[in-house]
Amino acid sequence: MTSVIGKSVKRTDTLGKVTGGAVYAGDVVLPGLLHGKTKRATVAHARIKSIDTSKALALPGVKAILTHVDVPRVLHYGSPHPRSASVTQDQYILDTKVRYYGEGVAAVAATSEEIAELACELIEVTYEPLPAVFTVEDALKPDAPAIHEVGPGGNLVLPPFVVTRGDVEKGFAEADLIVEGEYGMGRPTPAYMEPNVCVCQWDPLGKLTVWTSTQSPFMVRGTLAEVLDLPLNKVRVLVDHMGGGFGAKQDLFQHEFLCALLAQRTRRPVRMEFTRKETFLGGRTRHPGTVWIRQGFKRDGTITAREAKVVFNSGAYGSHGPGVTAVGTAALTSLYRCENVRLEGRCVYTNTPIAGAFRGYGVVQTYYALDILMDEAAEKLGLDPAELKLKNAVREGDVAPSNHPLTGHGLEDCIRRGMEETGWASRSEKRPSPKAARLRRGWGMGCEMHGSSAYPGIKEQGNAVVRMNEDGSVTLMTGTTGLGTGAHTALAQITAEELGVKFEDVAVVHGDTDVVPWDIGAFASHTTFMAGRACQMAAAEVKAKVLARAADKLEVSAADLEMKDSVISVKGVPGLSMTVRDAIAAEKGIPAPQLLGEGSYHPTKSYSFAAHFVEVEVDTETGQVTVLQVVPVHEIGKIIHPIAAAGQIEGGIQQGIGHTLSEDFVVDHRDGRPLNASFVDYKMPLAMDMPPIRTIILETAPSDGGPFGAKGVGEDPIIAIGPAIANAIYDAIGVRFRHYPIPPEQILSALAEREGAQAA
Amino acid sequence: MTSVIGKSVKRTDTLGKVTGGAVYAGDVVLPGLLHGKTKRATVAHARIKSIDTSKALALPGVKAILTHVDVPRVLHYGSPHPRSASVTQDQYILDTKVRYYGEGVAAVAATSEEIAELACELIEVTYEPLPAVFTVEDALKPDAPAIHEVGPGGNLVLPPFVVTRGDVEKGFAEADLIVEGEYGMGRPTPAYMEPNVCVCQWDPLGKLTVWTSTQSPFMVRGTLAEVLDLPLNKVRVLVDHMGGGFGAKQDLFQHEFLCALLAQRTRRPVRMEFTRKETFLGGRTRHPGTVWIRQGFKRDGTITAREAKVVFNSGAYGSHGPGVTAVGTAALTSLYRCENVRLEGRCVYTNTPIAGAFRGYGVVQTYYALDILMDEAAEKLGLDPAELKLKNAVREGDVAPSNHPLTGHGLEDCIRRGMEETGWASRSEKRPSPKAARLRRGWGMGCEMHGSSAYPGIKEQGNAVVRMNEDGSVTLMTGTTGLGTGAHTALAQITAEELGVKFEDVAVVHGDTDVVPWDIGAFASHTTFMAGRACQMAAAEVKAKVLARAADKLEVSAADLEMKDSVISVKGVPGLSMTVRDAIAAEKGIPAPQLLGEGSYHPTKSYSFAAHFVEVEVDTETGQVTVLQVVPVHEIGKIIHPIAAAGQIEGGIQQGIGHTLSEDFVVDHRDGRPLNASFVDYKMPLAMDMPPIRTIILETAPSDGGPFGAKGVGEDPIIAIGPAIANAIYDAIGVRFRHYPIPPEQILSALAEREGAQAA
């Protein structure tokens, strides 16, 4: 029986947020603060012939301008330090070449944002244009221009990523039915609420302090230290509150280096904040691309073989391309059981905005393809699609994409529960008739699985330090970042639960790389799972120290003691107890030692599962798709904070609806210029667009690694919603869409095309 | 052979100080900051009949006013949490009674300091005057007004503190000579460079953040938490740089409570900074008082008995009166050996400014008396005063004032070395003649001893956490405060030395009670001694973890490894070595665990010693005394940073010269009004007034507790200089002064009196 976890305690971050008291990086004000701006390229591919800064420098209020000649020339990239195989190092702070429209070519520090912007306009850049490519098809042509000097060549970000299992030829030979299709996806952006923002200040001893909106403060510390040639204890990165990242803010952005360098040059603090437009131009998107899949089936639905070719468009730089390609491609070994698999993933440079890490990390794209193909196959096999998926669902003993054995039957549990909840078997009977009415309804479902933690056993490590103060109150020190997910609340719950104190007794110190333990960053659904387990370990160490002191004072064995709500009792002896405060108080003049505990957890990989069931209504006159209801069923092991977990699920569904129906950051294929870099033109679903969501969370397959059996739920909810909607649209109007987003004009033109075909 | 300690490495705090980059509490600027001011009483003893704030509240810009009806009525005081026997709890934040001229009776928060000051003037307080007492003599009279309701009564702060050893009557009976005298002292103030200043802010969750100039951030946290009824993890106290405290800033001051309460009331950050005048009015002074001593001597100089009565004037509140009285009185058991001792210390409330902790902590006053009496006795015995002191100097095996056995022969070493250095035996021969010239010269000497650490074995505890970052750089986390002494440099040296890395590799995190380990505060000469030892312990733990990893990789035993300058070598095997960075790097995919070490040290008490030798010149026409040279000889165990240690010694001597010759904060005995609350009227020696100081530091008696044998040197240098000067003046002009300060007018009147007597 737990007393703190599993309850939706009041989150520690929300009151600050609703009262405006929460401090974000952009709220930092320092005496003498300067404002920095980035001069961005207006060409997609070019060599820089010259940059004339004289007019800009003459502008009163301009304090410094940096171009490529002023900054260290170190190839860098991003992501957790020490460097990861998931990312490429192909970027300079400022280069002599431009590879996409909107890339930074210079930076200004001035006494106001307005002056800095004006100075950017006054900087004159002369370009020598280069031929540009905007699609993977063009980029892969033999005569395509080379965008980078580094890498395997042919505009590949990495050599093709290949996974094979079993004998694919034999599998297809045994098939009664072979289904194949090519699926494509647009370029959704994370569109986080808080724009990228950074404030940098150097102290007289050459120590750099950075306030920045990042998911990975220690990555920022490590990479800045490396590029600027500083020891790690000379770079301090501070993140208190943060307004979303969704993976994109795992990268280090140009402005973070430039802000540090401008502050160094001017000897004054400098602040650089993206405009909303810059979050599109200089931000990170999901990888657009195509997924071709071919699957063989037995008549009973058993999958005999699977082949796939994944091609992702990385944009101008590699960023997380390698990781996204590998994870997205390898995901196709699983979800639905198949012994014979051959997969190939490629990631290709183009002269378009940079694709990076984004919630779902490649799996959104590949499971979208797989789950529509399964729907198509079910129809051809004359089987119910949910039954087909249930039959093939991965389960205990199967091998996960990460090659770990899977435990439990989470996916089957989710599918079965969703079918029950929606009355799936009788869904056709409930459909409003006549079928030919203007408004047509349909049901669809999709599945997903996603691992908690990214690189189990390699370099991931959850760390925590727990300290009990002399009044029995507790301070948890964690390097994790709160993106807005309530992570620190969950970690405090875990600490309180393990320690035997009240939730309110635990304060969380985070967001200061000088003082909190190292953390890899907030991504890969691993904060609660991995850092949570480290908190549990650290709390257990403190508890042991407290109980040892209490045992001395009570003259019993520590093993006979239990602790709850800060009261220590002797098991089975009512009345024999003492408060934690008394236990740790000085006795015979000897004070308690430092009550410090530390935890380090190297994770195993645990998978969470979900099945999303969706009902849509299609207006056949306007092409408008309305999602009427969503029933997401998630299996995530032990729930720490039910409302926060449900919040993750609902947020993921909202983002997923946007990506499936309306969101696409579009680049003009003539000149590489983005066409909708604003919230006016880039369409996201708002609160009033949201359907009712009946979230169901199962705890049927607890992890053996996470705290109290918990698993992650950050990535999962954005994956299954897309194919569920696409399958529901097919169910409603009988038209199959193999590309997202699916905007009204495509619905209308597909309906018109079908009517034309029927008429012919 | 040490490589980092014992060297005067570049201090980490100085560059920030000289460039203006160092951040003091007063430099903190926050959005919406209000300014607070204290309305101070203009009577010395009165009951408050009423306070009319209506005019003040009507002033535009005034945001809140607090009087005694608005603040929690909790008796508090100060000093390290949990509460210490060294201090009294006799003060309310704001009371219904005024006990000294300048006491705070209300506080204002307004949009500017000027408005807050004006509002204070507009507050109308009606007093019911009470009879006031300004001297201990008046306060101890049977019909004296009672200043407090708490305490033992009779205006005593604590019951008389009595120490007896041996048989004093027998001792005096055995004496060949009995010498007695009463010695008195004025009221010097610490006059720290940085005025008291405090900034308070509450976050939306009710957490209080306090930037304040304090020696004891954890005391501030503990006492504020207690008085405001908050858990300790809801109060965060921040101190980065600090501009001196000298003991006074061990107390919590009225404005620190008021600042927190004004910020709570206004929901805005509030800043309160003392004017220089307020540092006098509302600050803390040394305890003025009288010390009566009677000593018996054998003809050969052996002391047979000692009796003393110490009476300290505590001012309006007790503050550190109990501690200062006990330590100052008990000090008379020692310095010069004596088996038969009877001492009584009393501490008395008066309606004068508050006396508190001040460098030397009561010992300045009592050793001043003892060391002049020894000089008087030497003359009567026909012995050289230095020889008399050397004969009686405490030594190995004697019992210290704290009842610990003393180790080593530090005091004898100091006296002997000083006699050598000054050519003491032949000093009279070097004296300029004729003796009757206008300018007369003389030599004097004084001795002292002072313990490192205040409450050994009771509640003192040095703590440290040391973390090695993944690049091998090191972060030391310490709760100690840097008053300007270079403490954090010394702690980094100790950490680097023990760990085997370079000094530059160690960064120090301090000054944030949320994250650093608990510390009792920077006082009692114990930072280097006690926290330093904890740093050494924490560093040793990290080193063991690093060596274990290196041993694995090098396939040798960790016991065979040594580490220096971040290189780990196999002892006796040249060439077999690896860097720390390589040792801690991930191997076989497994990263190093958190490299965290912690140290907690409960100190023994170690004593440092000194003898000061001084030459003065007295101008018999003006009464001016010029200190021509000082030769201080200090024995402090292992020196960590020679220049910083010498800086402590020189600073103490400068303060001591001031107290002995010119500094006295004077209260008008008619109405209790201070007469010289400014640097114009309160005369301190400036840099140009300083004599040459030839500092000699001995390391002949290392402590067995401190790091590498180090002992403290913070309190010591202010003690022996006073009697050395007084004895030198006697040597020069033959007039004995038993009271400090000794201003020119006293010299002149004493000379005139003697001439009158000689003429008669």
From TrEMBL, chains A, B:
InterPro entries, A to Z: Ald_Oxase/Xan_DH_a/b, Ald_Oxase/Xan_DH_a/b_sf, Ald_Oxase/xanthine_DH-like, AldOxase/xan_DH_MoCoBD1, AldOxase/xan_DH_MoCoBD2, AldOxase/xan_DH_Mopterin-bd_sf
Essential cofactor(s): Mo-molybdopterin cytosine dinucleotide
Gene Ontology molecular function, alphabetical: iron ion binding; oxidoreductase activity
Membrane-spanning ranges: none
Signal peptide positions on this chain: none
Domain of life: Bacteria
Domain called Aldehyde oxidase/xanthine dehydrogenase a/b hammerhead: residue spans: 19-131
UniProt cross-references to SMART domains, sorted A to Z: Ald_Xan_dh_C
Protein name listed in UniProt: Dehydrogenase
Organism per entry: Rhodoplanes elegans
